[in-house]
Structures are given as structure tokens and as C-alpha cells.
Amino acid sequence: MEKVVQTLAEFEAEAARFAGSFVRHKEVATLITLSGELGAGKTSFTRSVAKALGVEETVTSPTFVLEKIYLLPPGKNFKRLIHIDAYRLEKGSTLAPLGFDELMQDAGNLILLEWPERVDEVLPAPAKKISFLVSPNGARTISYD
């Protein structure tokens, strides 16, 4: 499925719609991968998903800290939103120090991982793959696989 969004408001609405469509895995974390060039909207999408799930903290890129964990309010399908940015990682084994395997074992975790192509050799099959493409006019094409 593809969705073209022209404005920030449309982008945020699409992220909120997507956040409402998550189906939680019963035994392991739900992994969503986010691909696209720098500035394509991966972190903005995560920020909008977090807002839709009730995160009140400011959601920023974890490029330099690699991982940020946000507790979700009671009553949500998930307990935590984990935002990982693999841009600075050179291989999948570098996810281990983040406790990635342990995070994947908790069905209460929703993991949004940017730059999956950097670490794909160790990733389990994601629940959803999302890619972002920026058009010359600034519109974003969001593709869901």
C-alpha cells in the first residue's frame, strides 16, 4: 500500500492512522522498520506515532544515543515504544549491546527501527516495513510492505 502526503498535517494524520492499526504480537515485540534517505521523515513519523499512542515527552532522533524508550500510558496495546536509529551502526551484531534480543522477547514492546538495512542480517521479520520517498515538490510517499 502507498500513501502520498502533501503537508505535515497529512503526514501526522497518516502516522496516527497507522498507529491505530497495530496488531500486537502475543509472544514477541512488534518490530516496524523505517527506511528512507536522510530527511525523508522516519523520525517525524515515529514522533507522530508516539503522540498518537499518548507519549507526552518530546520525541527526538536517537542517532547519537542509538535508542530511546518511551513508556506508554495504561490502556494501550503496548507498554513501551522503543525508537532505534541504526544509521551509525556498521553491522547487526552492534545491536546486542542495546539489549535488542531482550527487547524483542517482550510482547509489550513496539519497536520502530530506522535504517534497518544497516543491521538486517540480525533482524527478525518485521511486522511491517515502511519506506519514505521525498518528491521534488516536498510531498512524501509512504510505502507499507
Task: Please describe what this structure looks like.
The chain has 145 residues and is of the alpha/beta class. The chain has a single domain (2-144), classed as P-loop containing nucleotide triphosphate hydrolases (Rossmann fold, 3-Layer(aba) Sandwich), CATH 3.40.50. Helix content is 19%, strand content 27%. The protein is built from three helices and seven strands, in the order βαβαββαβββ. A seven-stranded mixed β-sheet has the order 1-7-6-2-5-4-3, with helices on one face. A hairpin with an 8-residue loop joins strand 3 and strand 4 (80-85). Helix 1 (8-19) packs across helix 2. The radius of gyration is 14 Å and the shape is globular. The model has no long low-confidence stretch (mean pLDDT 91).
Report the average pLDDT across residues. Answer: 91
Give me the count of strands: 7
Q: What is the oligomer described by this structure?
A: single chain
**Strand arrangement, major sheet:** 1-7-6-2-5-4-3
Largest sheet properties? 7 strands, mixed
CATH class: Alpha Beta
Q: Count of DSSP helices?
A: 3
| Distance between the ends | 7 Å
What is the strand and helix layout of this fold?
Layout (H helix, E strand, L loop, with lengths): L1 E4 L2 H12 L10 E6 L6 H11 L14 E5 L8 E6 L14 H5 L4 E6 L13 E7 L5 E5 L1
Parallel strand pairs: 2-5, 2-6, 4-5
Antiparallel strand pairs: 1-7, 3-4, 6-7
Helix pairs in contact: 1-2
